[in-house]
Specification:
Helix content is 38%, strand content 24%. It is α/β, with parallel strands linked by helices and 176 residues long. Strands 1-2-3 form a 3-stranded mixed beta sheet. A 3-stranded mixed beta sheet has the order 4-5-6. β4 and β5 form a beta hairpin.
């Protein structure tokens, strides 16, 4: 392990790793380039590291000033951007339209892909799903496993829904 990788690993272990492990994930340094770009392999629950992505980068860059960028990657991916964000987003759209949206339409819901970058797909929940108290369960136990099965290049999902703006959630917090 290079000196740069060792210092990044030490910074992660001190400040970030406990939070990621508590969320069901793991992170390890897979590459530390001379240009200051560090690639971290994220395993376990995809929701474990992505919500902390900015905190991870800030902690690493503060501890190791020569780091200029931090990239999160799924296990076994050689380049975080392959197979191409547009292709991954379109493939996710097709799976959601064929297999997920018909099922959640019964709850007046709809899932839209808003984009993809570095293997992470951004989705937005609309209709009865926006503000639904079971939205996170639907994403982590339904949508995400399905997309992982169909799209090997998927690193994880990001929910970009403004749940506070939901006007008619299928399961409101009061219904729990």
């Amino acid at each position: 392990m290079s000196d740069l990788a060792a210092r990044v690993t030490a910074a992660l272990e001190r400040s970030i790793l406990p939070s990621v492990i508590a969320r069901g994930g793991a992170i390890r340094v897979t590459a530390a380039a001379a240009d200051g770009v560090v690639t971290l392999e994220v395993t376990g629950s995809p929701g474990a590291a992505l919500p902390l992505a900015s905190r991870i980068e800030a902690a690493v860059r503060a501890a190791v000033p020569e780091v200029t960028a931090v990239r999160l990657a799924a296990p076994g991916t050689s380049a975080p951007g392959s197979p191409g964000a547009a292709g991954l987003a379109e493939a996710a759209r097709q799976v959601l339209d064929a297999e997920v949206n018909p099922a959640i339409a019964a709850h007046r819901g709809h899932v839209t892909v808003t984009g993809a970058k570095d293997g992470w797909i951004r989705i937005r929940l609309d209709g009865g799903c926006q503000g639904c108290s079971l939205a996170e369960v639907t994403i982590r136990q339904g949508i995400e496993p399905l997309l992982r099965d169909r799209l090997p290049a998927l690193t994880g999902l990001t929910d970009v829904t403004d749940h506070e703006a939901g006007t008619d959630p299928f399961f409101s917090p009061e219904k729990r």
